[in-house]
Amino acid sequence: MNIILLGPPGAGKGTQARILVDERQMVQLSTGDMLREARTSGTDMGRKVAEVMDRGDLVTDEIVIGLIREKLEGDAAPGGFIFDGFPRTLAQADALGALLDEMGQSLDAVIEMRVDDEALVDRITARSTCANCGEVYNDHTKPPPADGVCTNCGQKTEFKRRADDNADSLKTRLMAYYKQTSPLIGYYYAKGDLTVIDGLGEIDEVSGEIKRILG
Ligand code: AMP
After folding, report:
1. Which residue's CA is the closest to the ligand 1 atom numbered 14?
2. Which residues line ligand 1 at a C-beta cut-off of 6 Å?
3. Is 0.85 surpassed by the pTM of this model?
4. Ligand 1 centroid vs 146 CA: distance in angstroms?
5. Predicted confidence band at 96 (pLDDT cuts at 50, 70, 90)?
6. Which residues have C-beta within 8 Å of that of residue 163, sequence separation ≥ 6?
7. 6: β partners
8. Among the atoms of ligand 1, which is closest to the Cα of residue 35?
9. What average pLDDT does this structure show over 79-89?
């Protein structure tokens, strides 16, 4: 089963993808995570990517489609792929369709996680992640443990804030979502692939909804 989690920054796509990975042996393909890895590579491309990401703009279609192609061709996913943060433009959506076709695979569901903008700003500015396993914490609803031990991986760790989780970059990221990514809602609706869920609920409620959709 191959699915897309679609939604603005802070909608909870990464959190829900991690639950699906644990429960269904699916493979999470997060272009954001791939690009964060690329930016530390010390190459010219890495430096350019870092600049674009810190501003909150989108990296070029060519780069992200290349990253996804590599993963799809290289990784085995018995439970299927979860596309998290990809596609973000219509060109990326067309490219994904073509790549899956080439592999004799299909897209089984596109789940749009809807969350209102104010809640997004609250979530993102309060967010931190375990430097070891990527578990997501929130200062208000799930604060990082005071003893520094991650509740997910059990390691003594650092809880890091993302460089682009600040008010300025967030404005640009939201604008990029509404201008470039939200047209995908209509695109997948027209294809008959779209299901909309309320992303505002508790993590368990949202994952229950997703389970219900995937069957
Ligand atoms: P994310 O972790 O999904 O919030 O992505 C963080 C940043 O990586 C975004 O603000 C973009 O700069 C870049 N990025 C991630 N995925 C994509 C994509 N599919 N297309 C273009 N840029 C992306």
Report:
1. 32
2. 9, 31-32, 35, 52-53, 56-59, 64, 85-86, 88, 92, 164, 173
3. yes
4. 30
5. very high
6. 53, 54, 169
7. 112
8. 8
9. 96
